[in-house]
């Protein structure tokens, strides 16, 4: 007799815009939320008994209503609000996770002065990330992060002396382009009490500086460089995890055309791509 | 002193086409592979010592070389080959995972006869999925599955009597369109010894039949219907997990235009969407 | 003094689902509409005078309302209805274009019998296309078509004896994989009076047969093969235009691995891609 | 007897990275090129006679070779080089079009100082655009532009007093969010002799300033504002054409939840969207 061994459900891609007016100056939050809940919902699966089920449409409303009812200065705070309020509002929920991405906007500058209510950016590139998970009887877990911070350096990067066997064809190089799109997650020691904007700026700045300044022997090593920089830049986080695609730039073979190789003309490719992961932790496991 | 607490890496989106010629009749495999490995690679991260590192470019070659060296009839077999051969070839690897998606092609029919070497399909819709994970000292774990099997029924689906509170605005309905894109994973009891094409056909056929024939009180209930059907259709699998987005079709409000509501005109939306998950297991945990 | 030399506007990605119930048997139309209009709208641009402007939100409503008010059997008919009704309803419009794509669904088969109200497919692959343009004082122009019909043949395709110069590196091949995603447009001689489903089936069938059966010396030649087949298959169309990306399958170089080349292992690539266009007309220009 | 009434072909998505080293300081160009040619190619279509055909693979090589052989400071220059060199190199070509998009990178700043060889950005957002078309016996036509410059203002935008009829449901608003993704094309009076970076900065700056500073009665009016600003900012261009999707932000209905409407909580939607086009020309047609 088959049984339902796991279930959860939620609402994804809830796209919220919130404008906070501080006099003439407007703050803009654009956030996409994914909500997922665990709890006492098995009857909906096994018997079509939906009485406990919070409809995903209701969850969508919940996101907008809480955005209206609560003030927040950072996407991390709103993630905590959503997760904890879900748990508080619905006794049938045992675990609520709110995963948010915030679009990056910058104020339009006119003659060097930032505009009060006009913004540019807002595209598909770099986003801020926050995930909060609330459970009954435990502290809410909060993770901050970044998605899609694309970086490239044209030199000071090598890839050589790696494992050689029958399947290897790639040659050693002591000067290559290294490019990646940084996805990083950093758990906070506590879900409140931080200046999240300052943390994000410090961590991102440290990652960029390490990426730019440190000579790299591989994406793997750069992960440790960036991770150490991030942990040093912000005391509030306990570790940092990276998922880095290698955005390959392959030297174009100029030889057939009688042209000299000077490491300056490259083919950019998306497929296939190396995918390198690593977690740097502040304290070693004891 | 920060430490590296986790690491793994691999190659993603390795796109392989293999043609197997059986006389005039050609078999076509189009597979996108993601390879990920764990093992003795910390030195690359912490010291830039890459001597143990199998370059992701080497892994890419590995996929094509093994596709040439080995015969296989199904994507599940090739996943097992890749994972096990990686482990066998490279002692520094402790765990190798091969995650494959196979594009669906059908033979072009001319006057009712299937063509020997011409195919149609091959787009972004329904794909076959296989994932094999090989570790030292244990049996290889194999999971089959499907990605993006889009289905819709225009009636015999309800969504009513769900939880009501202040945040609910959605009304009960006893006749709605239900649509989803089925992602399903089914672990096999053993990594070999199955007719994988027959399994996939039986499971997919059972899911489609359950979706079409069973009256639905919610996506949650349909998951159990499809899961029970799948487990009954194929003895080789031990459970089945679903991740189903609700592809909403919302009745268009005709009232402002003086037109009668007859449940026939709908707005299709992608955002936001319900996301429903569930796992059905053959034997209850003891 | 700058002037407004051209203007037009409209609504894109209006996603309509219509269910037509013929007893227990349901017909399903899923159509994405792009509407664009020209007319007396300059004042909105130059003076912010919107009195003539039909809001794009109104256009969206228009699509759903006409879907309710009118019966149609094919997406081509609905394109004509939309374009002509826009012109009839709004005197300030001089030209209305309705460009529609219809998602492909097939009935789920249970024991060989097509189900009355359950469908599969509906993904991102092959879509049916129609575009109608209505103007005052002229006949409505109607174009049918197809988008994203992906095809591949594993042999009977060559690419050789092409232009050689200093920039060429590609070698001749007399046996390659040819694959493409067919976008084709076929203008109808008249906007009404055709069995559009039969036309589309005949044209698509002819294209597939030509693709499969005719030996190809290049995508260019295959365009003519398919175009001639299409024109012969359906008298109602006056020409057919193709836009074909070359979905390259490049032989993987097995030589470094000591393996024999047998033209069976390929790398599938999306970038860069050849893009081949051609129009075949029934009657030569006089 | 069907005839080939039109043909052209080319290579799309040729992705070039070029690094120009000026001592320690590196300049980075990342460009995606689409090449399309017309000429004496009918025999390839009608007879499979490819002798005149420049393979699209050869065109791909051509892009990389010319990137190596020629110096350029701006993507507009490289578009002109490619189009004119194609015409010069291949007598069978009658018209060559090079359409380029350049990814936006900014130097990483460390302690306020721009780094010599490390960059961030490079994502899917704002790109610079250039298109050059060269024909025998005429001047090369050059168009500059921008793609995907996303902007949003939280106030100083209205949408009211537009056409009312039976199909209208949208209410007037005198304070809404206006957001769009600017695609703009600006033809240059001559293909050479301009400081293209300065032109682009001036035009883009003027568009942003107009967007931010001018009160808007509709996207249509904002097109004229931005167009007039652009033409005033750069003498080298003769007109400017806009294609602006309306990135709708729809007030969330808070009434069912007993919350006060304060125009601060919005739903962001992608589908459907208004699409507004307009061209502003420096001199009126005579």
Query: Uncertain segments of chain A of ≥5 residues (pLDDT<50)?
Result: none
Structural class of chain A: alpha+beta
Oligomer: homotetramer
Count of structural domains of chain A: 2
The major pleated sheet of chain A works out as: 8 strands, antiparallel
Q: What is the general shape of chain A?
A: globular
At the fourth level of CATH, the homologous superfamily of the largest domain in chain A is Urate Oxidase
- Spatial order of the strands forming the largest sheet of chain A: 1-2-3-6-7-8-9-12
- CATH-assigned fold name of the largest domain in chain A: Urate Oxidase
For the largest interface in this structure, which chains are involved and how many residues does each contribute? A-B, 81 and 82 residues
Helix content of chain A: 10-25%
- Tally of individual helices of chain A: 5
CATH architecture of the largest domain in chain A: Roll
**Over all CA atoms, what is the radius of gyration of chain A?**
23 Å
CATH top level label of the largest domain in chain A: Alpha Beta
């Amino acid at each position: 007799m088959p049984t339902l061994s796991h279930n959860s459900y939620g609402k994804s891609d809830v796209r919220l815009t919130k404008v906070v007016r501080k006099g003439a100056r407007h703050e803009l939050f654009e956030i996409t939320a994914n909500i997922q809940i665990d709890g006492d919902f098995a009857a909906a699966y096994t018997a079509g008994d939906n009485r406990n089920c919070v409809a995903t449409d209701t969850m969508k409303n919940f996101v907008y209503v809480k955005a209206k009812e609560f003030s927040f200065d950072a996407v991390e705070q709103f993630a905590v609000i959503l997760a904890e309020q879900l748990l508080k509002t619905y006794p049938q929920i045992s675990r609520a996770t709110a995963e948010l991405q915030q679009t990056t906007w910058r104020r339009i500058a006119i003659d060097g002065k930032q505009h009060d209510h006009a913004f540019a950016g807002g595209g598909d590139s770099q986003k801020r990330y926050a995930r909060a998970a609330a459970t009954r009887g435990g502290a809410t877990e909060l993770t901050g992060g970044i998605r899609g911070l694309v970086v490239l350096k044209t030199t000071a990067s090598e890839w050589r002396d790696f494992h050689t066997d029958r399947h290897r064809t790639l040659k050693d190089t002591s000067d290559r382009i290294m490019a990646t799109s940084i996805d990083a997650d950093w758990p906070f020691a506590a879900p409140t009490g931080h200046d999240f904007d300052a943390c994000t700026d410090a961590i991102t700045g440290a990652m960029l500086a390490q990426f730019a300044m440190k000579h790299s022997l591989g994406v793997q090593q750069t992960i440790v460089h960036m991770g150490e920089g991030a942990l040093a830049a912000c005391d509030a986080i306990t570790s940092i995890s990276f998922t880095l695609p290698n955005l390959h730039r392959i030297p174009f073979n100029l030889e057939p055309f009688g042209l000299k190789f000077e490491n300056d003309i490259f083919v950019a490719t998306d497929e296939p791509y190396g995918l390198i992961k690593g977690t740097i932790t502040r304290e070693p496991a004891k």
